[in-house]
Automatic annotation (TrEMBL):
GO CC entries: extracellular region; membrane
Subcellular localization, as worded in the UniProt entry: Membrane
Lineage of the species this protein comes from: Eukaryota, Metazoa, Chordata, Craniata, Vertebrata
Name of the protein in question: SCP domain-containing protein
Family, per entry: Belongs to the CRISP family.
Stored InterPro entries: Allrgn_V5/Tpx1_CS (IPR018244), CAP_dom (IPR014044), CAP_sf (IPR035940), CRISP-related (IPR001283), SCP_GLIPR-1-like (IPR034121), V5_allergen-like (IPR002413)
Taxonomic source organism: Ovis aries (Sheep)
Span of domain SCP: 76-223
Amino acid sequence: MRTLASSPLQKSANRTARTPEAGKARLTEPLRVCGSERFLHPTMILRKKLSYLWTLGLCLVASKSPPKVPSIKDDTFIEECLRFHNEARSNVSPPAADMKYMSWDEALAKTAEAWAKKCKFSHNSCSSKLYECHPTFQYAGENLWLGPLTISAAKFAIDMWYDERKFYDFNTKSCSKICGHYTQVAWADSYKVGCAFAICPNFGSPDSALFVCNYAPAIQIAAISCLN
């Protein structure tokens, strides 16, 4: 490491900096700026250091990358959504004799994405209108989830929906509390799904995300008592 020696000019500057002309406040501590030395009052040094720390803090906040929303065409995202749904469906109890395997549907995913981007925590009105959510299926079912966008958000959302099974009575086909998300995930006749995320800072956080999944054919609401 190279040592920087003081030049005669610097020594002269040091002597000048310590004269009473600065208003009796003793000027000490050199502040290096771009290779040069300037002698400042300790108060000025403190202010500059605080200003530097403040600027650094702002830079760190600004440099934090916003959450990345997975594309509805991303193979990994699609695979995860399908796997989480099919795993949940395979675990229903008692097991369904005619449980269909779910596959991805691009049209349902586009509908989910368009609705998610509206950042409204309410159901899409198209789900109750003929062929409004999908060009082929009459109706589409829908599940919503709101929370922070993380790499495991999709699994967390689907697990929460599936966890409502504790409120569903298979014998009476009824719900003691909200369990409509579970019944849609577990509905044996639904075999198409499309999901999407959207960042919705209006829900209180920069990483707040709305997760929407649409299903077809939709669950037959009349078959479930007290469905929420």
